[in-house]
Amino acid sequence: MIIGTCTVTLQADWVSSLKGKRMIVKSLIDRVRHKFNVSAAEVDDQDVHKLIVIGFACVTNEVRHANSIIDNVLDFIENNTEAQIVDTVIEIL
To answer: What are the pLDDT digits (tens) for 18-59?
Structure first.
């Protein structure tokens, strides 16, 4: 069993409140979960309205497949939000 995990940090300078941030995070996480069948959640900096930290994980039987899923999710996030990706941490277990 191969587990692929990734933590993505996004910067959203235009967000002015935690309520606005929650709407963006909820929408993005829901779309990622349904499109790629991965587990996803906001994992850090919940009280900072300009930073979004999302973690997601997938389970598969090949390292190559886990890397492919992670790359596809990162591309999707980059293309479907105005926030800039400032950091990614990928782990394959």
So the answer is: 898 999 899 999 999 999 999 999 998 888 889 999 999 999
The domain that holds 74 is classified in CATH as 3.30.70.1120
Q: Is the pTM of this model over 0.90?
A: no
Cβ atoms of residues 93 and 36 within 8 Å: no
Among candidates 53, 23, 22, 57, which has minimal Cα distance to 37? 57
Whether the predicted pLDDT of 2 surpasses 90: yes
Dist CA 65 CA 2 (whole Å): 9
All residues at 6 or more sequence positions from 57 whose CB lies less than 8 Å from its CB, including other chains: 3, 4, 5, 6, 38, 39, 40
- 14 is in which domain, residue-wise? 2-92
Q: How many structural domains compose the chain?
A: 1
Per DSSP, what are the bridge partners of residue 92? 4
